[in-house]
Amino acid sequence: MIRSYIYILFFSSFLFACGETPQVEETTNTAEIETPKRALAKFEPADGKCIVFAGQELESIGGLEEYKDGYFDHFTTPGGFTMYTKMRPGDEEFGFTYSGLAGVFTTDDWGDSPSNMSLQLADEDFNNSCLAIGLELVNHEDRVARGEMDSLVLVLGNWLKSLGRRPVFLRIGYEFSGAWNHYDREDYIASFRRIKTMYDSIGVTNVAYVWQSHGSDEPLDVLDSWYPGDEYVDWCGYSFFARWDEANMVEFARKHGKPVFIAEATPTIRTETTKQNGKTAETILSNPVQAQEAWEKWFTPFFKTIDDNPDVVKAISYINCNWKSHRMWFENPTFQDVDARLQTNEEVAQKWSEEIAKDKYLNASPDLFDMLWDDK
Questions:
Q1: Beta pairing, strands 50-55 & 361-362
Q2: 219: DSSP letter
Q3: How many angstroms separate the CA atoms of 168 and 260, rounded?
Q4: What are phi and psi of 373, to 5 degrees?
Q5: β-pairing verdict for 235-240 and 338-339
Q6: What is the pLDDT of the chain when averaged over all its residues?
Q7: Per-residue pLDDT tens for 159-212?
Q8: How far apart are CA 4 and CA 12, in angstroms?
Q9: Which has the closest alpha carbon to 212: 234, 194, 196?
Q10: Could you tell me if 248 and 223 are in contact, meaning their C-beta atoms sit under 8 angstroms apart?
Q11: Domains along the chain with CATH numbers
């Protein structure tokens, strides 16, 4: 054994002396092998890119002749805008009785100031922005699940189809696990699946289906129990409010190979009683002291969440709303003392503008739709 080892050393030395290098079989360093990247979901931009949306009604968004003091009027036109509709025929809320699809074809106000998606889509300022829709099924998820609302589901589906190549992010039964929605879990899941299946059957191709939680107190096993399934969900989503640090949706989405849409975000600051009664601190962005606190305690962790998860967080929607002026929120402990309009504070507006001007953020552009279709 020793003699063989000496021979090998001698032979190797001889080769080096002759200017030749002994051939050594290459070995593969498994640490250098890259893990294959997952396929991008419907309308998901590349890693490190994030679509900017603004919401959530006509006053907050602006950009129209009658509504011209909103996000569109003060900042770079966002890559998308967020609106809502309710599939709740016969229900009444804040003096408004729902019939058909509120806020889609007509101007309707159910307590959160007027909404009308068709009005926005007809305006050229919105030509290059995607549309995100919060579809509420409260009190009617059982009827949707049983097929009793199919005619209304199809009216919405055919309208979505008529939008052509405009990407639509449809948040079916958004904030599904929030106690205020009191959805039945089995009916909710069945409704989500039914709507998606129906839209596939009529050839709706411009919709990405978003499954959005309320973003607090959501253990992974709870999320699992509400999940419609990978074949029905394109994006996972959640709300980013005062209890943002209790959300587990980023981890859940990464586990399922899905991108994340922070579909509702507005500066709300936790108090000692927020977890018990929902009450948040007064946050009026026009107040310099409160704006500074909001930047430190809400905006900073919000942007950090995006920065820390470039492979997952691919869209955000800022609610540029004067919450405290809308009837729906007068008695809501989370939003009753909040005015989140960015344009009311020069310093906040400048910081926001500088942030979303970074290359990672996707705002409106003539080629945005084509890029999202190509990346899907």
A1: parallel
A2: -
A3: 15
A4: -65, -40
A5: unpaired
A6: 92
A7: 999 999 999 999 999 999 999 999 999 999 999 999 999 999 999 999 999 999
A8: 12
A9: 234
A10: yes
A11: 44-375 (3.20.20.80)
